[in-house]
Amino acid sequence: MTTGSCETLTMKTQIDSQFLDAAPVATAQNRRDTEALLHERRDTWPEAASTPSDALLRLVRLAEGLQSRVRAQARARFDLAAGDYDLLIRLRSEPAPHAMTPTALCRSLNITPGGLTKIMHRLKARGLIERAPSPTDGRSALTRLTEAGLEMAEAALASAQAPVEALLSDSLGGSELDQLDALLRKALLTVESAG
Question: Could you tell me which residue ranges the HTH marR-type domain spans (predicted)?
Answer without folding.
Answer: 52-189
